[in-house]
């Protein structure tokens, strides 16, 4: 879920949501995993008893030690996985490759090789914990190296570029509740683009694309059940690009599955979706927490 939220935030140039995902990870996910790890450690004996019944056997104590040591790496793995997801979505391939090589491969194998002659199987368990420590330190070290100082906040730890995101005047947030709202907001998007200095052709295409995609949601998604639905629209002007994000709570619908589809001899079927795909430089769809999220870059 974090991976998808990170991806959408980067597509929308949403600096606040991007950092919020990481804050939630540190404030909620890591403490929750610490509680789970503590529970596993405290239940080491009953858990081991599910597999082995004779405490005098060597394998019994080996398993006990595994339950005592291995859970310590679980909170650290949460941190590593989130930063790998963030690195993949933001193009930080150097960090991604480094963490991928270290995590579970170089660190575990290397520490195991060093410690197993002295600690036996316990060396394998401890190696997994040290693996998490090293990857966490690498994340901090990467930020320190890039920023030339120890990271003092979440944005510095994530090494978010200074030009990422847009101020409020370069963003427009709107909501649609019915068919009439589609036309009205399409006009607002068109005017917003013109006010931002976008050429009239692209301003028209931005409004038209939004009208087609949002109108399709209202006509088909709103009528699938008796529930009240909504569409949230965000328009971002960044580096001469117009980014449209359409988010709704209707049934899952991926426009990629319909863009090239013509039913029988009806060549106008799905023509609106096909037109948007021709207009846009990039179209991305994701379903997050039951919400359809469509990002269009023009």
Task: Describe what you observe in this structure.
By secondary structure, this protein is α+β, with helices and mostly antiparallel strands. The protein folds into two domains: 2-158, no CATH class; 168-297, Heat Shock Protein 90 (2-Layer Sandwich), CATH 3.30.565.10. It contains eleven helices and five strands; from the N terminus they run ααααααααβααββαββ. It has helices at residues 2-11, 15-42, 44-49, 58-69, 74-90, 93-119, 121-147, 154-158, 179-195, 200-221, 271-279, and strands spanning 171-176, 231-238, 241-248, 282-288, 291-297. A five-stranded antiparallel β-sheet has the order 1-2-3-5-4, with helices on both faces. The longest helix has 28 residues, at 15-42. The mean pLDDT is 88.
Overview in brief:
The protein has helices at 2-11, 15-42, 44-49, 58-69, 74-90, 93-119, 121-147, 154-158, 179-195, 200-221, 271-279, and strands at residues 171-176, 231-238, 241-248, 282-288, 291-297. The protein is an alpha+beta fold. The chain has a 5-stranded antiparallel sheet with strand order 1-2-3-5-4, with helices on both faces.
